[in-house]
From TrEMBL:
This is Neprosin PEP catalytic domain-containing protein. InterPro entries: Glutamic_endopeptidase, Neprosin, Neprosin_propep. The lineage of its organism: Eukaryota, Viridiplantae, Streptophyta, Embryophyta, Tracheophyta. Residues 232-472 form the Neprosin PEP catalytic domain. PROSITE patterns: NEPROSIN_PEP_CD. PANTHER family: PROTEIN, PUTATIVE (DUF239)-RELATED, PROTEIN, PUTATIVE (DUF239)-RELATED-RELATED.
């Protein structure tokens, strides 16, 4: 199949949705052998915009011979017969592609226009970084290479939210009236808790640990956002969850103890396990996630997600979540991973609503450590109690490509030593009582690919087992 890209007369061959991911370095100029084809001298870097499968030349920039360009979005490009390009595409409409064309095709005005565009994009990235990375009192580098800035409590990203400009929050804040939880007595001898905080004591009192964002992070996420949406109907997303049924539900919280796994992912794939609370369009989530697009690696990390008003992001990438703990980052790597049939590592995670003021608190670990909260004032739906709760797995693979494994990358069984699971699946009801979740149903849009089982009244209380292998 060939698609016209307009003037000049160039054809793009092999257009197809959902192929493999693109890497970031292309050598231009000189002669470079690619199979039986060669790139001739004097090529240029050209911006092409896709508009519903029509590719139109925007601008070009002259490329010095033999120079390596860092061009996010590319994996493999080569010229065919001087008038054709063959490439592999993962893009949805609107994504900017960087292609290699012959220098004769476009003139000087295009070169200058592209230089201006690239400079403006770089300036915008620098502006974003300045807003996101706050001044650090201290910097901590972890064994995994993450850099955490110890940011003054009052200068953390949360307070960039327009509804949090005038606040009375402080770093010693605690909830006024959280519902009382049952003591966690449902466990089995093979379980081990995972480490939940920074090694060595974390940040100084009065500061909070915020993972430093790099320009590469922003470029990666920007490119991915043009390939997929984080909405539930995103193409390529798959779920295997247990959820509360419709009705007049009122929840002041939800939680569970999750087993920790590290499913293999690559490119723009991700795999996650999470619990979610929702009312109308507002949702908050917590769980673990393996996501190279978000983090730049394939390690298993804790994460939160907020969708409310204009805030739609993970962790502290947009304002909203007020961090209070100086030693527990939101996106810390979980160092211990479950091994089926051998070791099971778990972490309790809860989201509870302060009955006195409506703030939603994140509680982590066996001691229900209070990490921080989402203030009531940033919500509309969740300014009241939640009407929906969900526990389970979520994976994504770009459309047309394989999907990664979910959970422990195997189908669930009744033996939790060999399965990924949520145990002690519970809610806080409208009266503030901690109870096992009831009136639930299991859901997976494709039970041949990923499975989930909802088991109540077990020795592990309400139990959800889920998972599935990667697709081929």
């Amino acid at each position: 199949m060939e698609t016209d890209i307009g003037s000049p007369e160039i054809k793009v061959a092999g257009v197809g949705r959902g192929a493999v991911n693109w890497s970031s370095v292309i050598r231009v100029g000189g002669e470079r052998s690619l199979g039986k084809k060669k790139i001739p001298k004097g090529v240029i870097v050209t911006l092409i915009k896709e508009e519903i499968s029509i590719f139109r030349v925007i601008n070009a920039i002259e490329a010095p011979e033999g120079k390596d360009f860092l061009l996010p979005g590319l994996e493999e490009i080569f010229l065919l017969n001087d008038v054709q390009l063959k490439y592999q595409q993962t893009c949805l409409p609107g994504f900017l592609l960087v292609l290699l064309l012959l220098v004769q095709l476009l003139g000087h005005n295009g070169v200058e226009g592209t230089r201006d565009l690239l400079e403006r994009e770089d300036q915008e990235l620098e502006k974003q970084l300045k807003l996101m990375n706050k001044p650090a009192v201290k910097t901590i580098k972890t064994q995994y290479g993450d850099i955490y800035d110890c940011v003054d409590f009052y200068k953390q990203p949360a307070f960039d939210h327009p509804l949090l400009k005038n606040h009375s929050f402080h770093f010693e804040m605690k909830p006024i009236s959280l519902p009382k939880r049952k003591r966690d007595q449902a466990s089995f001898e093979d379980e081990e808790p995972v480490h939940i905080g920074l090694i060595g004591g974390g940040c100084p009192v009065g500061t909070v640990p915020i993972r430093r964002v790099t320009k590469e992070d922003l470029i990666r996420e920007r490119n991915a956002s043009k390939v997929m949406s984080f909405a539930d109907n995103a193409l390529g997303a798959h779920y295997a969850v247990v959820r509360t049924r419709g009705g007049q539900n009122k929840f002041n919280g939800a939680g569970a103890t999750l087993s920790i796994h590290n499913p293999r992912v690559s490119g723009r794939q991700y795999s996650a396990a999470r619990l979610m609370l929702q009312n109308e369009a507002d949702t908050i989530q917590v769980g673990w996630r393996v996501d190279p697009t978000l983090y730049g690696d394939s390690k298993t990390r804790r994460f939160i997600r907020l969708d409310a008003g204009q805030s739609h992001c993970f962790n502290t990438r947009c304002p909203g979540f007020v961090h209070v703990r100086s030693d527990i980052p939101l996106d810390l790597v979980y160092p211990q991973i479950s091994i089926p049939g051998k070791d099971v590592y778990v972490v309790p995670l809860y989201i509870d609503r302060d009955l006195a003021n409506g703030n939603w608190w994140l509680l982590v670990g066996p001691n229900n450590t209070q990490v921080g909260f989402w203030p009531k004032r940033i919500f509309t739906g969740l300014a009241d109690m939640a009407s929906y709760a969900e526990w389970g797995g979520e994976v994504f693979g770009p459309p047309g490509t394989p999907s990664p494994g979910m959970g422990n990358s195997d189908f669930p069984t009744s033996d939790t030593l060999y399965s990924s699971y949520f145990r002690n699946v519970e809610v806080i009801d409208g009266g503030g009582q901690n109870i096992d979740a009831s009136n639930t149903e299991s859901f997976a849009e494709n039970m041949t690919r990923y499975k989930v089982f909802d088991e109540e009244h077990t020795n592990l209380r309400h139990l959800v087992v889920y998972g599935g292998p990667p697709s081929s």
